Structures are given as C-alpha cells and as structure tokens.
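A brief tutorial aside. Many learners find it easier to grasp structure tokens once they have seen a single protein encoded end to end. The record that follows does exactly this for Putative transposase. Read the sequence first, then the structure, and try to relate runs of similar tokens to stretches of the chain.
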Amino acid sequence: MARLPRLTLPGYPHHVIQRGNNRQRIFVDRSDFECMLGLLFEYAQKFGVELHAYVLMDNHFHLLATPTTEQALPLMMQALGRSYVRYFNRRHGRTGTLWEGRYRSTLIESERYLLACMAYIDLNPVRAGMVAQAGDWPWSSYAHYVGLRQDRLLTPHALYWELGNTPFAREAAYAELVQAGISAAQQSALTDATLRGWALGEGDFLAEVQKKSPRRVARSKAGRPVRVPTGLHENG
C-alpha cells in the first residue's frame, strides 16, 4: 500500500515524533541537547512555527507545534534534520544516517487533546524511568510552564493561558495536570495517531479537517489495521 502523504495544515497543533535510526542515541551529552535546542529556535523562527511543548530524549524527541503555513512544519523539520546530522556526524566522527526514516506527525483537536499532549510530552522521561518527576529532566518544556525558567523556544497555546488568571495560577494548574498524568487511553491515542498519521479528534473535528485536506484524515472503520513497526511504542 502506498504511503500516505503527511497530514499538515496551518493553524492546527501538530504532535511530532522523530527517532534515531535503530534506536541509537541522537544526543550524547549536554552540547548535543543544546545544539538541537538552538537549531529548533532558529528554524521555528525562520519558517513560522509556534512551538508549544517539547522533550528531547536520548534517542528521540517530541514536539507540539502549530505551523503558520502549510509548508512551515515540513521545511522546519527538513532544515532541522539536515543541520543536526551534519553537526552530530562532524562532532562525533561518524557518517551516514541518524534518523529512523521521516518524522512522524499528525494534527490534534486542541480542546480535547492539546493539554493532554503537553503532559504526555513532559512525562516522557518519567515513563522511560529516567527521572522520578517531570521537573528532574532538563530537556523539556515542563520547567517553563511551571515557572522554573523562561524558555525562548516556547509560544504558550491559548488553552494554557486559560488555566488561570495569573502566572502563578497557570503554573500551579499545569503542575497539577502533569502530576495527575494522563490515561492509558489518551497515551495510546496520542502515540498511535502520530505514528500512523491520522488526525486525532472527535467526529466534528475530523469532518472539519477533511474539508481542508485532499487526503483521507482518519482511518475507515473497515479494513485491516495498520501495523506499527516494532519498537515505536517503547517509552512514548
């Protein structure tokens, strides 16, 4: 079966996953993490992508971002991928590919999934057993949203602003949201939709998105389920 073109629409938040080839490390030390954050800032600004949340893990990363044009996200990810591979190969004396194929992404319904997706991203290191609390991992957006630091990368989504009338109220509400975690059903839905490229939301939202895209945005109820490659579910 032919691979579906990637679903990308301006004005909608997109959950993005990019993994290292063969689950290898893509960040070895602090300099690598900092380089990626610098490139993310540069290319998000250049191509017009609002970044709402992120986490950089040892062998993959997640983004939650809203592109301002149809090509903004693909252009950012292409430039980011190429620039980081050049940096990483030169610094670590290696050659060849770094990524496990093209990045995976899909757009999500804000009202139902955006805050859950932020928590899902910030809890990634906890699910992987790398830290006990989200705040213990320095390479995510969590610290910004709970008032521990200012992160120039981030553009808070309107739904974050609605968490409270003051910075303290918003920070406390988001910390409580992450502490509570997300359900297994939400976690599975966010992972599966992104890996398979189907839009994630309720019927009205999917119908709205379908009107704006020439490709099918949700899997039909009939037919065989799409197989997710081995290893893609591990640690979110």
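Self-check: Residues 127 and 235 are 6 Å apart (CA to CA). If you spotted this yourself, you are ready for the next section.
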